[in-house]
Amino acid sequence: MSGDVCKLSMGDIVSLCKRRGFIFQSADVYGGLQGIYDYGPLGVELKNNLKAAWWRSIVHERDDVEGIDSSLITHRLVLQHSGHEDTFSDPMVDCRDCQCRMRADQLMDGKCESCGSKNLTEPRQFNLMFRANFGALQDESSFVYLRPETAQGIFTNFKNVVDSTSRKLPFGIAQMGKSFRNEVTPRNFIFRMREFEQMELEFFVEPGSDEKWHGKWVEERVNWWKKQGLDSDKLKLFHQPKEDLAHYAKATVDILYEFPHGFEELEGIANRTDFDLGSHSKNQEELNLFAKVLPNGDSNSKLVMQDLENNSQFVPYVIEPSAGLDRGILAILTEGFRREILENGSERVVLRLKPHLTPFKAAVVPLAKNNPRIVEKAREIANHLKMLGLGRIKYEDVGNIGKAYRRHDEIGTPCCITVDFDTFEAVEESVTVRDRDSMRQRRIPIKELEFFLKEFYNPGS
Ligand code: GAP
Question: What is the pTM (predicted TM-score) of this model?
Fold first, then answer.
């Protein structure tokens, strides 16, 4: 390689994602739905791998975190008492000349972003939550919300988790999954969507230790993103000014990444104090009637911990590292995709992903598709590697070897294993293993392949 490398633009990334089966516009056969995307055959592998890495590092590798998976459909009272019904809105304006709808807080010089007109409506608040009818009745009293964050399902299950696991502070509850926001201006591909996934941890601590834990989690989370392959030069911390904080937060530090459209938020780490548990507890008291009709007859649903020394109860504080999964995917693709000019002047597009994230872990390629001995050996190797539990292994018999290498470079496959005529030359059968990044090839005995690959894919959570 001559060393000439260039990053891809957002447009290049969007079209590569479609062409190679990572991400598609949802319902594109009907013209698409703005801000909604589907993950294709390679995208779903990448997404599942990133989720698995997060879960491993937040739940499996720690002793102080439990996981849950709560419902997407959310009781209206939960989001009323969390403050979302009153405050989860963006200011919206319409252009009277071209009817474009925009966020008032993102306007440049008070002009319409589409036609430049200043003939705009007054800003009005637009609540971002999706409502849905619940049950057969379709009146004002029977609606529910699709959750706008996964966090509330954690807060409302706080007592269930404490009671069923006997947890003491400090400890966390994690979950990942879909969230829904009716964004006024979804844009920048999967950066701002109307349906997206979050990976959230609510880490409950003693009041007074919250600032120390906040700092610790900021550090942990930056390090985790680096392990997913993001370059430290492209990561920045942003301390939100007091006037911009969400209604629940005492302090928030955002981890910003340099996306193709600039430095933007990848994850927020908030000190949510006792706001959420406090407001759900207080309102449980107010809703005593509601508590009394719980099926288990439990009317004591206060979301508190016991202070055994002073024989009293208190509401824990919570630190919340909240990451966007789709933004993580976009950051990893932005970081990984590059166009390289090789020494012979030719060009290749390569996706440099960490091996634990790649959609395919290896491609097994028979050099001669019409040679039964080579084909049979290649199939045998692919079938064996599939059973190791490393992830997807591709048996690749389309096109010539050069094209197979280029295709796998472009989708990030870390190595191609080729069965060729030399495989059967020596007593010990061997294959060629070509490395995606260096493009170097080396011969490895077939019996050492399993060990080689297990070392290579040692998960980088
Ligand atoms: N529970 C706290 C919370 O939801 P947030 O800053 O609104 O805080 C957390 O969202 C993360 O979720 C963001 O840092 C971002 O990565 C992701 N996110 C938020 N809105 C999004 C959207 N419309 N599309 C894609 N990701 C989004």
Answer: 0.94
- Helix-strand-coil percent breakdown of the chain, rounded to 5? 35, 30, 35
Instruction: Quickly count helices (H) and strands (E) in the chain.
Output: 13, 25
Closest by CA position to 89, among listed 124, 120, 64: 124
C-beta of 158 in contact with ligand 1 (< 6 A): no
Structure confidence at residue 5 as a pLDDT band (50, 70, 90): confident
Q: What is the pLDDT of residue 459?
A: 57
- The verdict on residue 60 lying in a domain is yes
Indicate the number of domains in the chain: 2
Q: Is the CB of 324 under 6 A from ligand 1?
A: yes
For the stretch 198-254, pLDDT in tens is 999 999 999 999 999 999 999 999 999 999 999 999 999 999 999 999 989 999 999
Clarify whether residues 232 and 89 are in a common domain. yes
Q: 309 CB contacts (<8 Å, ≥6 apart)?
A: none
Assess whether 292 and 365 both reside in one domain: no
Give distance in angstroms: CA of 192 to centre of ligand 1: 8
Does residue 86 belong to any structural domain of this protein? yes
Domain that holds residue 107: 10-332
Q: Determine the distance separating the centroid of ligand 1 and the alpha carbon of 308, expressed in angstroms.
A: 37
User: What is the identity of the amino acid at 4?
Assistant: D
Both 169 and 307 in one domain: the answer is yes
Cβ contact 251:270 at 8 Å: yes
Q: Are residues 259 and 147 in the same domain?
A: yes
Q: Of all helices (H) and strands (E), which one includes residue 337?
A: strand 337-341
Asked whether residue 104 falls in the same domain as residue 28, the answer is yes
Q: How far is the CA of 259 from the centre of ligand 1 (A)?
A: 15
Distance from C-alpha of 183 to C-alpha of 325, rounded to nearest angstrom? 17
CA angle centred on 175, ends 76 and 240, rounded to 5°? 80
> What's the 400 CA to ligand 1 centre distance in angstroms?
44
Question: Which amino acid residue places its CA nearest to atom 18 of ligand 1?
Answer: 324
Angle at 413 between CA 411 and CA 419, to 5 degrees: 125
pLDDT band at 305 (very low <50, low <70, confident <90, very high): very high
What percentage of the chain has pLDDT greater than the value 90? 81
Q: Is residue 278 part of a domain?
A: yes
Q: Using one digit for the tens of pLDDT, what is the confidence trace for 52-76?
A: 999 999 999 999 999 999 999 999 9
Q: Which atom of ligand 1 is nearest to the CA of 150?
A: 1
> Looking at residues 419-437, what average pLDDT do you find?
94
Whether 324 and 449 map to the same domain: the answer is no
Measured at the CA of 68, the angle between CA 54 and CA 47, to 5 degrees, comes to 35
